[in-house]
Amino acid sequence: MGLRSYLQGTTLLRNAVRRVRVMHTRREHPFGIIPERPQRIIVEPTNACNLKCTFCGNKDMLRPHTWLSLDLYEQLLEEMSAMGVPRLTLHTVGEPTLHEELPRMIRMAKERGLTVTFSTNGTTLTPEKITELVLAGPDIMNLSIDAVDPDKLRRLRPGIDPEKLFKSVELLRKTRDEIGPHCESPWGQTQLPSLVATCVFTKEWSREEERAYFKRLGPLVDDFFFHWPNNHAGYVPDEPHRRKGILSQRLRDRIYGSVRMPCPYPWDALYLLSNGAMSVCRFDFDARVTVGRFGPESLAELWNSQRMMSLRKAHMDFDFREWPTCQDCVGTYYANRHEDYRRTQRLKRRNGYRSRRDMWLSVEPMRKQRLTGSGSQHT
Q1: Comparing C-alpha atoms, which of 333, 344, 319 is closest to residue 251?
Q2: pLDDT of 372 above 70
Q3: CA 259 to CA 262: how far, in whole Å?
Q4: Buried b or exposed e, range 190-208, using 16+ CB within 10 angstroms
Q5: 3-class DSSP state for residue 200?
Q6: Could you please report the per-residue DSSP string of 242-307?
Q7: Pick from 30, 77, 214, 349: CA 20 to 30 A from residue 272's CA?
Q8: Per the confidence metrics, is the pTM higher than 0.85?
């Protein structure tokens, strides 16, 4: 492990360095260095979910359940193509497969040449839906599975049927291998979608669970992604699964908060919620960090709006009086993709797993490019 990798994976030191850089940058760029366009658009097909996971804020959401209209979605795709935005993610805080038109939404985006990813808890994957989703050809399909022990999985995700889930995942892999669309990729000719098991570390995780996890899911997926949970911008106040340390959590938050870095999302992405609101936050369950409404306002207008500039300025100055939701979000305290990457690689090595497709690529995962651990397709 090189020095650079070590420094990038040491969250407190990395944040301190980035904070100094921000303070230097804002002298000439008070709003940060703003790209011409977002790198990606994240779409919420629906904010409804059929589970009540212990580490997720969806169960505490106050917004009524809504489903994104196809007319608004089609307008979004047209504007993405016109702006040259390359990547679309079809999930935020709900379960996207609850939207009956999800396969059609994927096809519409792929027809426009976009890279398409989405995540699912896998519980609604009937044989018919699996076939429709595979034929639609998403680039990456993330399967959110945090344990393979049935009792642990039920405790973490109340309402789940573990054996039904695993049978669905097995059928998904079989269907992908039989009828999945072929494409050129960094790994040669592959079939879509690439399947990734994503796991949130919780109090249920152990070395025994780790071995069982790789044994059961290793033959079924192309890669893994492991990470720690956070407080979802305050939606999980008790945070029963947060990582423990020598210091008390209160003192730890205070230390890490003192060197917090700006949230990357105001310079990276826009989030179209199912009710038409445009957010800038992956944890925005109740649309508290909104910059306008898509439809009445275009993507370009929203990206360069006064609200976006205000949010960027708040993060550059670390002054959140106008954006109180951002004040205590620990996503900017502890989130560290490089640390997640290193941990994921370590677990794969320890369990003798070799990725069939390295999903830790940059913006467009299915195009030939240099493989790197500095970026990730996961959101």
Answers
A1: 333
A2: no
A3: 10
A4: bbbbbbbbbbbbbebbeee
A5: strand
A6: PPP-SS-HHHHHHHHHHT----SGGGTEEEE-TTSEEE--TT-TT--SEEEEBTTB-HHHHHTSHH
A7: 30
A8: yes
